[in-house]
2-(3-amino-3-carboxypropyl)histidine synthase
Amino acid sequence: MSNDAYSEGDLRKTGMALKHDREWDYELDRIVDAIEERDATTVGLQFPEGLKRRAPAVADDLRALTEDVTFMISGQPCYGACDLDTFLMRRSDVFVHFGHSPMKESEKIIYVPLFSNVDPFPILEDAVDELQEGEVGLVTTAQHMNRFGEMVDWLEERGYEVQTRRGDERLTHEGQVLGCNYASADLPADQVLYVGGGKFHPLGLAMEHPEKTVVIADPVNNVVTIADTEKFMKQRFGAVHRAMDARTWGVIFCTKIGQGRWEQAEKILSENDDAYLVTMDEVTPDRLRNFDFDAFVNTGCPRITTDDGPRFHKPMLTPGEYEIAVGNKPLEELSFDTFHGTW
Amino acid sequence: MSNDAYSEGDLRKTGMALKHDREWDYELDRIVDAIEERDATTVGLQFPEGLKRRAPAVADDLRALTEDVTFMISGQPCYGACDLDTFLMRRSDVFVHFGHSPMKESEKIIYVPLFSNVDPFPILEDAVDELQEGEVGLVTTAQHMNRFGEMVDWLEERGYEVQTRRGDERLTHEGQVLGCNYASADLPADQVLYVGGGKFHPLGLAMEHPEKTVVIADPVNNVVTIADTEKFMKQRFGAVHRAMDARTWGVIFCTKIGQGRWEQAEKILSENDDAYLVTMDEVTPDRLRNFDFDAFVNTGCPRITTDDGPRFHKPMLTPGEYEIAVGNKPLEELSFDTFHGTW
């Protein structure tokens, strides 16, 4: 991602950008225990983008607590649970992934969730002004999960009938959303309260549930907003329309854990002789620029498609949008692309 | 690499950018033979950046010659022999890497060299005007190796005493240079004739051999120039000077095949408590921006350091330059970083 073109989905514009200089609990004791238990001599540490600058201090603390251990910091991009650095994982005796819920379980991996210490209740006070009485769905992101029960209680005390659910098996916690999965908002309520930083998650949530009002309570930037998908939908319709003239298609298969939708890619290939499979880990505009396809369909992370879409040199569609562009489905079926179930 | 900031080492500014629309021999028969011999159902195809746009046509030709084979095109960045897409290789029954000499040998990998069909002799006519009589070293890149013998003969017919050698085990062919290895120019002659496109290789060659005159005969862009390292050296001295104030260091270990200089990285870590190991495959300014180190030392591809150096937000040094910056060596020892031997 280039420095001068932050997109809507860029974590650097979200709570992860650390507007408040929060302290996190890195659970050093748990890591040290694992190191000792396994006689580890190499330990890999992976941080999300917004926390990479904390890596040296965490490594220092761990060095002070251990002996003869080489700590290796992952320099791979990390925006979510999918971005597990499998190379470093293989090369480490113990591998620590900070800030995301588990995507792949392994003896070797320690997931440290990094809960936010920002108090969500002041902004909830503001958010209730935007809510109708009665039923409300409540969702949040991994780093606010530690206060989820309290938030439910807080709303119930104020007379709301709070609805929550654990989404599907892709989600670890009740009420949790991912950038690619909003199954925890599949609730009867007509309104959903999203508590968390940034636009990344709530925009996806609103796209997935266009029939609901999505109220965004952002405790990090201290603002309440209502999700507005109109600009976003216009962009998506624009991309689909431009792709309708495409003859050749690059079908992107993402090689990251949790992003490989092989059946979708294979189906497109089997039905379209002018479709070509392109495999890659990071899907970026620079990497695709040298390919001479008329359009792309991305079977990997849906947020790359929708959030970074305008930065690609050719139309970049989700698999559902592709079906519309090639005439298999009517334009009215345009919807947000999400990952459900396992991977 | 962002679109608006091509660096000196960017292949898109070299012969690989296909100023002449050359035809290449993709050796389809050899590939089809391998597919049949191994009953392959999945075939991976990897092209250098400048040839990625040819990928669909090559896949089409192969599809016409085979049955029930899924062709997968690598979308990973590919600038050299180090950029082997090991993920796609593991997922393919047959894996074809176009345009570079072998970096790793495997039953499964077919290397297709892609020799240039540009005639080098017209530009050699011009180049001899810049050469002194007598001894001359001759070097070229992988894609002109097919005419190397003829070039030697051509120069000898004109009275030159032509010196050539195969470099070290990193190099496949006599007279071949890589962006990171100029051992084939370790010759007694005071002048070296480099035949090939772009600035990428000859600049490294001139840096490695500052005592020699390096004449560049570029048959692709049809120009003859003399390599000038002055601007380049100023940049390197500038980076070293800026890094002299650094307290914390990010020590980059590149995970690509052929780029892992673990001993160098480990040595720096063992001697400097303020040095932290960062592992990654692609080393780009974007990926390092979120790390809060005062300076970086790159043990991976030396061309990333020297060619892309000014684009990083903090000084980026070679291991040799690091030794100078921390005071272990005098400034006079600044030299070009190359990879010798095996990997």
Remarks:
- DSSP finds eleven helices and 13 strands in chain A.
- Confidence is low (pLDDT under 50) at residues 1-21 of chain A.
- Residues 230-243 of chain A form the longest helix (14 residues).
- The two ends of chain A are 25 Å apart (CA to CA).
